[in-house]
Amino acid sequence: MTDRSDMFSALLENVRLIVANDSGSSEKLQVICQMLTDGVQHYDWVGFYLTDQAGRNLVLGPFVGEPTDHVQIPFGRGICGQAAQRRETFLVQDVSKEANYLSCSPRVRSEIVVPVIRKGEVLGELDIDSHQLSPFAKEDSEFLERVAALVSRLF
Ligand code: SME
């Protein structure tokens, strides 16, 4: 096993413990954001967006990192909105090459967004920004998709 996959296995176990504990859902999501930011060097902003009642917009939920202006994002807009529309992980290793991108901070160089899906419905998503170029490997997507599956019951 690589170091990265050892690290992700340990973090995933912690996510399982957090999901199972007695606190409220948004508190759990907040703790998971903090753990991912602290635990993974190339994760600089970690947050959850929640799909609104109409199923057309993503609304910012718990996050850790710089405050963002993008508190509501329509499906289809930005990397977040495109991931929600496509219902699949959207990985951008260099945000300067993505035309449909909503910038939160000039320091962000790359981004990965993983939809949280239950019974075929996009309930929200997990969004990670990095200040590094091309920092994400296949292990990141696999790990974050497992995190998204574990937290889906909290949405
Ligand atoms: N960059 C995102 C907007 C959300 S922030 O990264 C927090 C996008 O293009 O959808």
End-to-end Cα distance:
32 Å
The CATH topology, please? Beta-Lactamase
The percent range for strand residues is 25-35%
- Poorly predicted regions are none
Q: List the strand order in the largest sheet.
A: 3-2-1-6-5-4
Count of helical regions = 4
Bound molecules: methionine sulfoxide
Order of helices and strands: HHEEEHEEEH
Apparent shape: globular
Report the CATH architecture: 2-Layer Sandwich
Label the structural class.
alpha+beta
Q: CATH homologous superfamily, by name?
A: GAF domain
Please provide the count of β strands: 6
Whole-number mean pLDDT: 97
Domains, number: 1
Radius of gyration: 14 Å
Any chance you could write out the topology, listing elements then pairs?
Blueprint: H1 3-20, H2 25-39, E1 45-51, E2 57-64, E3 72-74, H3 78-86, E4 90-92, E5 110-118, E6 121-130, H4 138-151
Antiparallel strand pairs: 1-2, 1-6, 2-3, 4-5, 5-6
Helix pairs in contact: 1-2, 1-4
Bound molecules: methionine sulfoxide (SME).
